[in-house]
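Task: sequence design from structure.
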């Protein structure tokens, strides 16, 4: 296995909170240009694992390689700068800025201090290149018609796509999506996954997806890892995973 094939490689990543081992020796490989899903019941350790990969927590053990670089223990803003971007479970872009301004702000942010954006409003309009790039991104996530709306006027699903747009604007190579269709109605959930698939195909973007709505998500993903009680219990293609007795047991037992 060469690191060249994989955007993210983790080796035996472990993270405990006091006596609770939330993530136990988790090793995954996220292939470049794939949508790789992490599934598992509530409390399985999915969010903690992604937070440990992106520097929110330092792992107690294990190594994390992103785009061929050892990022173990790097702070979140450095991981972000390298292009590993996490979107939030509850999207929180700047509510009073327009959709376009939110994307422009992300282009100039370093992942830690994006609040300078409103001050830049006046001159940022002049930057035609940036605006063109922002519109390209908005087109790709189906938001270009809403460019001039303040973010607070968007629906839940559109806000999630705005988060993805901001990740793209920030130069993401790997986007971690934590429950992108949580609270979104089924029709729009499929639209969100279709956009994500298009981004994968058009931009060769890589996604690490955490999702509970496996009925909706599984048909869009390339590879799946299943966690339970902090540890990996299965992996494979969506077909393989849904037939895995250990996985069936967990989901029937829920
Ligand atoms: N900051 C923290 N401090 C202490 N315990 C935590 C912390 N974050 C998570 N945990 C615990 O770690 C375990 C894993 O939680 P985590 O949120 O990673 O699970 P999850 O798979 O994302 O669950 P869900 O599907 O509900 O989002 C849980 O038992 C949780 O209570
Ligand atoms: Mg979670």
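Answer:
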């Amino acid at each position: 296995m060469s690191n060249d094939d994989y955007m993210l490689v983790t080796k035996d990543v472990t993270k405990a909170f006091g006596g609770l081992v939330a993530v136990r020796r988790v090793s995954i490989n996220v292939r470049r240009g794939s949508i790789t899903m992490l599934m598992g019941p509530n409390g399985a350790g999915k969010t903690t694992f992604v937070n440990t990969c992106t520097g929110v927590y330092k792992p107690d053990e294990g190594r994390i390689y992103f785009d061929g670089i050892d990022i173990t223990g790097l702070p979140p803003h450095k991981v972000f700068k390298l292009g590993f971007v996490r979107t939030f479970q509850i999207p929180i872009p700047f509510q009073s800025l327009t959709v376009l301004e939110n994307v422009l702000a992300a282009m100039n942010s370093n992942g830690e201090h994006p609040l300078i954006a409103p001050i830049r409003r006046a001159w940022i309009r002049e930057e035609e290149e940036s605006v063109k790039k922002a519109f390209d991104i908005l087109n790709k996530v189906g938001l270009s018609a809403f460019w001039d709306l303040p973010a607070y006027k968007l629906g839940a699903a559109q806000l999630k796509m705005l988060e993805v747009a901001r990740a793209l604007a920030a130069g993401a190579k790997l986007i971690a999506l934590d429950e992108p269709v949580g609270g979104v109605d089924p029709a729009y959930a499929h639209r969100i996954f279709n956009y994500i698939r298009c981004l994968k195909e058009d931009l060769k973007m890589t996604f690490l997806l955490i999702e509970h709505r496996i009925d909706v998500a599984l048909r869009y993903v390339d590879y799946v890892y299943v966690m339970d009680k902090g540890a990996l219990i299965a992996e494979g293609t969506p077909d393989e995973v849904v037939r895995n007795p250990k996985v069936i047991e967990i989901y029937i037992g829920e």
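The chain has a mean pLDDT of 89.
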